[in-house]
Each structure stands twice: as C-alpha cells, then as structure tokens.
Design brief:
Number of strands: 11
Radius of gyration: 52 Å
Distance between the termini: 43 Å
Structural class: alpha+beta
Order of helices and strands: HHHEEEEHHHEHEEHEEHHEE
Helix content: 55-70%
Largest sheet: 5 strands, mixed
Shape: rod-shaped
Length: about 450
C-alpha cells in the first residue's frame, strides 16, 4: 500500500482548499458570461458607465413624464437595450413606475439617487445594473466551505481515525488481548509508528509466552526435584528406622542396611551436585575462564574416572581419539560435560556391553562421538533427551541412578563453548551422542 508523508498530505489539502473555490468561481463566471475570459472587463465597465450616465440623463430630463405611459414605454425600451431595470418613486416613497415588478431582492448591484429641482425633492430612482460579481463570489465561498469540509473529512479518515484505532488497540493489548490487529494508514509517519508498535507487541507477546514457559518449567523442576529427593529420603529414613528399632539383628543384615543408607546418601549427594551445577550454568560469566586445553586428554581423564563403574558391569570402553586436539576452553567444565556423557552411556549399557569414544580435529572444529550398545533412545526420548529432569521409558529411567540433569548440563557446557550436542541412535543399535566445538571460544 502506497503511503504519503504527512507534509505532502497537508500540502495537498491546502492546495485543494485553494483550488476548489477558484473552480467554483470560474464555473459561475462561465454560466454568467458564457466565456472564461476576463480581458473584456474594463471595456464592459466603460460601456456600463456610459449606459448608466445616459439612463440617468433620460430619467432626470423626464421627471414631469414619469407617470406618462408613453414615456414609460420609451424608457422600458432603453432599459432592455442596456439590460437594466429601474424603480421610480415619489418624494413620499410611493412607486410611480417599476420596469420589472418581480425584481425586488436581486443579487445584482444597484445605484440609488434622488432627483432634486430648485431645492425640492422630486423623487427617488433605483437602477439595477445588468452585471455583478455577487454570484461568482458566493460560488467561490461555497467552494471554500466544501473544500474545508472535504479536507476535514479526509484528515479524520487518514490521520485521526488511525490514531484513535491505535489508541483503542493499545488499551486492548494492555487488557491482555494479543489477537488484535493494528489499524492500517496511508500516512507514512503513522504507518511507521504502527510497524514499530507491532514489533513491540510481538516482542511483548513473546516475552509473556517465554515467562509462562519459564513458570511452567519452574513448577516442573520443583515437582521433579521434590520427587527425586523424597524417594531416596523415604528409603533412607526407613532403613535408619529399622536400624534404630533393631529390626536388623544379624551383622549381615546390619551391613546391608548400612550399605543401602550409604547408597541412598550418595544418590542424594549426586542429585544435589547436579542441581547445583545445572543452576550454576544459568549464571556463568560472559567470558569463560578459557585456556588452551588438550581435549583428547580431558576426554581421557573422564574415561579414567568412569573406568571403575564400567569394570563392575564388565563394560569395555574403546578409545579412538587423536593424539592431540588443542582448543580454547574451560578444562573443568569440559571434563564435567564429557563425564556426564560417559556416565550416561555406562549406566544404560547392559553388562558385557561396549562403549566407543571417538575424537578428532576437523578444520577449525573439534568433533567427538560417544556410542554405547544399550537399548538406545525411543522417538519420544529423542525429542526430550536434553530437557532437565525428563523421565523417559523404564529402560532409561532414573532407576539407573541418574538425576535427569547430566545431558542438559553437558549441552549447556558445549553450547557455552560455541558448539552443539545432538542425540540419536546408531544404525547398528545403541545410543549415539555426537558434538562439536570450535577451536577458539567465540
């Protein structure tokens, strides 16, 4: 839609207000004279003045014959030639002769004078002149009024109405109605304000939606954390009550109760630590504590830390990493991310299974892959793999000892280093986690 600058619109209205009266004036002049020329005005004025002088002489010369019908007929003929009309009145204002009885309130110009002889008032004469600009001037005034009316209507339509609609829309948005449409306008400045207002509204809508999503996520996290804390605490309290009440009487049973309590306390410790790390990732400084890091060595340290757990389940970890993959990053956070990925693989790999780890430098990126021989991800789990505290199927549930935050923490650390982490399934079976990070932190 084409728009006009408000300055242009104002100038057009001003030009229209000036033009329309002139058009009306020309129209009235043409209807009166059958011509649009004004060059004959001076000549016509001279002829009118000559006819007026001659008519006055004729009337003054025949003052004694004003009431004579023959003289009146001669006067009438002269009046028709000059296109004038006359009213002759006595000294007492009584009509003696009226050439055109219907011409009483004419718009034409008039000439009035009194006839006096020897100091005595004889009568009064009123001459109606044949031409006048009154019709043209009235037409011009009518055109001016119409032009003002049209300009006001168009000003309201193009300027005031869109502003009123925009004000009403703002009140609707303030009331929480996000589905309203911003009014259109052909004025450029108003259209620009509308576009800016629409961008602001979209930003506010996205902000409110994000706030609602964060509130929903907060409620979910609180509920999930409460559930995860309650389950081991309930078991821990039950076993401690059993020890206190003497239910476990044999050394073997006491040792079993103590082992379960230690396991549950370790699970609680791991959950609290993961929650702390996950929360901390939200408030990392803009600049990481970046230093040159050998990512191959960091990955090796993570594998060493998970080796005891892997040996307990008779799981082999195959290392296919390059000799060196030097990058810039936070060594502590990178080790935590890789340890979470390997811990996830170990926990979900059945006894006697295998885990394959690969790492190589590809151009200006460090690429890595961790594959296990477990059941892999279901379609639903792939869509929610990196959501915090997500509960998947039974095969990958928190019964394996995870807190549901490991993959979410790893994803945030990798993205914090300018990379990306994805989850999938290997064609030969098992879960497949792949990722990359740039050599230099952005």
């Amino acid at each position: 839609m084409r728009t006009l600058r408000i300055r242009t619109f104002t100038l057009l209205c001003f030009f229209f207000i000036l033009l329309l009266p002139w058009i009306f004036f020309l129209g009235a002049h043409f209807m009166e004279t059958n011509t649009l020329r004004f060059t004959q005005s001076q000549t016509q004025n001279k002829n009118l003045q000559r006819d007026l002088t001659g008519m006055l002489r004729l009337i003054e010369a025949g003052t004694e014959e004003w009431a004579d019908p023959n003289w009146q007929n001669e006067l009438y003929k002269q009046l028709r030639k000059t296109k004038m009309d006359v009213v002759l009145q006595s000294a007492s204002n009584l009509d003696i002769y009226r050439s055109n009885p219907e011409r009483r309130g004419s718009l034409s110009s008039t000439e009035r004078f009194s006839v006096i002889e020897d100091g005595e008032l004889i009568g009064r004469v009123t001459l109606f002149l044949p031409k006048s600009n009154s019709v043209q001037m009235i037409s011009a005034l009518a055109g001016l009024l119409i032009a003002f009316f049209v300009a006001v209507v168009e000003m309201r339509r193009f300027v005031l109405k869109p502003l009123e609609n925009m004000s009403a829309t703002a009140r609707q948005i303030a009331a929480g109605d996000w589905e309203v449409r911003m009014p259109l306008s052909r004025i450029t400045e108003i259209a620009e304000v509308r576009d800016g207002f629409e961008v602001m509204v979209k930003g506010l809508q996205q902000s409110f939606q994000k706030q609602a999503e964060l509130e929903e996520e907060r409620r979910f996290v609180i509920a999930a954390v409460a559930h995860d804390l309650r389950t081991p605490l309930f078991a821990l309290r039950g076993y401690l009550d059993g020890l206190e009440q003497g239910i476990a009487q044999s050394p073997e049973k006491i040792a079993k109760y103590v082992a379960v309590c230690k396991e549950k306390s370790a699970q609680l410790d791991r959950l609290v630590e993961d929650l702390f790390t996950f929360t901390k990732m939200e408030y990392l400084e803009k600049e990481l504590n970046s230093k040159p890091v050998d990512f191959t060595r960091t990955l090796g340290q993570s594998m060493d830390s998970l080796s005891p757990l892997a040996r307990q389940k008779n799981i082999s970890i195959t290392n296919h990493t390059a000799e060196k993959c030097i990058m810039s990053g936070d060594a502590h956070l990178l080790e935590r991310a890789m340890s979470n990925l390997l811990d996830n693989a170990v926990r979900h790999t059945p006894a006697g299974g295998e885990i394959v780890v690969k790492c190589q430098q590809d151009g200006n990126k460090v690429k890595f892959m961790i594959r296990d021989s477990g059941p892999g991800f279901s379609m639903e789990e792939l869509a929610h793999a990196f959501e915090p505290l997500y509960r998947g199927e039974v095969s990958r549930s928190r019964s394996t000892g995870g807190s549901g935050l490991g993959l979410a923490i790893s994803l945030r650390i990798v993205r914090r280093h300018g990379g990306e982490l994805t989850a999938g399934n290997h064609p030969e079976g098992g879960a497949l986690l792949t990722g990359w990070m740039p050599i230099t932190v952005p």
